[in-house]
């Protein structure tokens, strides 16, 4: 009998899967609401996901995050991620959103060279591999989360304004920082592939709501070769690993280049920015899709019937060969009603029954 993992891989390779596959990521308040409704937090099993997300263990190489902000006074509430990037809390109405503080903004070449970048925590890799094996033993696919791959991690550290200027002026500082981050990304990609990860999730936002965040030529020069290096590192170990790429916003001019770079799956196809049917007609024979249901308009403000109709239209467009994992285009935010999430799973089951797939 085909496992959910095997069938998901068939879907992503557009080889006529036996079921429709779905995905959801909840914000903390949605997880709280789910727990109150069902008495547990395992929404992935409840909603029938065929994969489980897993992150590689990373070692922080700093002891005092405040120390790395000599040019900025940070709010007392600031917390620091594995890169040492600062995040401070705003209003309670911002929920999980935070303000970002950039430790390498204004930094010299030597500061960038000697910064305490994170690294893979090799002492925890045995447990990490065991966790992936446990996912596989459950018949599920392992989805390695490695977004903020090159561009985002670099500008989060440096600030977008300064990294953009670094690229435009071809500064040594920008080159060094991007190479440092690419090296870290390659080390993670290598360990994900060695551990048997099925889907490697990369991503850097390169589009805005209505236009590009960075012009294609600059991306081709500075970011595409580094992204390809990360992908090649994983594929040298496991040629069959599926490469997932996330970018919000309008990114149509990049899609051909992303495919050339080695992307198998594109996420999220944000419908407020791109028309899914047009994207599918152009790229659907070379690319699979993940997401496609808008979290700006459809899910928070649409009716259950509208959500179901759009989900069915996506599945019908892709057809029996598959090539789609249906779900929200981003994290499910607090204002999305539970009924609209259920509508997605109902659309999946309705499509399966209509087309003689699994009951």
How would you concisely characterize the structure shown here?
With 359 residues, this protein is of the alpha/beta class. The chain has 15 helices and 13 strands.
Instruction: Tally the structural domains.
Output: 1
Order of helices and strands: HEHHEEEEEHEHEHHHEHHEHEHEHHEH
Mean pLDDT: 96
How much is the radius of gyration in Å? 21 Å
Fold topology:
Layout: H1 4-12, E1 21-22, H2 28-38, H3 43-46, E2 51-54, E3 58-59, E4 79-80, E5 86-89, E6 98-101, H4 109-114, E7 119-120, H5 125-137, E8 141-145, H6 151-158, H7 160-169, H8 172-195, E9 199-203, H9 216-222, H10 224-237, E10 242-246, H11 255-261, E11 265-267, H12 276-283, E12 288-293, H13 298-301, H14 304-318, E13 324-328, H15 338-354
Parallel strand pairs: 1-13, 2-8, 8-9, 9-10, 10-11, 11-12, 12-13
Antiparallel strand pairs: 3-7, 4-5, 5-6
What do these coordinates show?
Helix content is 44%, strand content 14%. The chain is an alpha/beta fold. Helix 8 packs parallel to helix 10. The two termini are 15 Å apart. It has a single domain, classed as TIM Barrel. It contains 15 helices and 13 strands. The mean pLDDT is 96. A hairpin with a 5-residue loop joins strand 4 (79-80) and strand 5 (86-89). The longest helix is centred in the middle third of the chain and has 24 residues, at 172-195. It has helices spanning 4-12, 28-38, 43-46, 109-114, 125-137, 151-158, 160-169, 172-195, 216-222, 224-237, 255-261, 276-283, 298-301, 304-318, 338-354, and strands spanning 21-22, 51-54, 58-59, 79-80, 86-89, 98-101, 119-120, 141-145, 199-203, 242-246, 265-267, 288-293, 324-328. 42% of the residues are buried. The strands form three sheets. An eight-stranded parallel sheet has the order 1-13-12-11-10-9-8-2. The radius of gyration is 21 Å and the shape is globular.
């Amino acid at each position: 009998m085909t496992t959910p993992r095997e069938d998901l891989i068939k879907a992503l390779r557009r080889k006529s899967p036996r079921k429709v596959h779905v995905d959801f990521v909840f914000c903390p308040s949605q997880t709280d609401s789910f727990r109150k409704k069902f008495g547990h937090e395992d929404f992935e099993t409840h909603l029938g996901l065929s994969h489980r997300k897993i992150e590689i263990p990373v070692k922080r190489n700093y002891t005092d995050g405040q120390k790395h902000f000599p040019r900025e006074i940070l709010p007392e509430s600031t917390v620091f991620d594995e890169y040492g990037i600062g995040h401070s809390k705003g209003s309670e109405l911002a929920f999980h959103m935070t303000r970002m503080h950039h430790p390498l903004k204004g930094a010299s070449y030597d500061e960038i060279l000697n910064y305490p970048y994170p690294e893979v925590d090799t002492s925890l890799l045995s447990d990490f591999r065991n966790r992936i094996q446990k996912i596989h033993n459950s018949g599920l696919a392992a989805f390695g989360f490695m977004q903020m791959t090159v561009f985002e991690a670099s500008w989060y550290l440096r600030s977008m304004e300064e990294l953009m200027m670094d690229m435009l002026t071809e500064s040594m500082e920008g080159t060094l920082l991007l190479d440092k981050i690419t090296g870290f990304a390659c080390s993670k990609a290598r360990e994900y592939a060695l551990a048997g990860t099925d889907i490697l999730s990369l991503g850097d936002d390169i589009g805005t709501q209505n236009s590009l965040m960075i012009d294609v030529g600059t991306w081709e020069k500075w970011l595409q070769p580094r992204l390809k290096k990360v992908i090649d590192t994983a594929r040298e170990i496991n040629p069959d690993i599926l490469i997932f790429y996330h970018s919000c916003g309008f990114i149509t001019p990049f899609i051909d280049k992303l495919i050339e770079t080695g992307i198998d799956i594109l996420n999220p196809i944000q419908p407020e920015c791109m028309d899914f049917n047009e994207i599918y007609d152009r790229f659907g024979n070379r690319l699979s899709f993940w997401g496609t249901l808008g979290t700006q308009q459809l899910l928070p403000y649409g009716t259950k019937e509208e959500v179901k109709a759009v989900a069915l239209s996506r599945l019908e467009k892709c057809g029996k060969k598959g090539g789609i994992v249906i779900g929200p285009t981003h994290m499910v935010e607090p204002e999305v009603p539970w009924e609209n999430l259920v509508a997605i799973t109902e659309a999946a089951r309705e499509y399966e029954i209509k087309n003689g797939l699994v009951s």
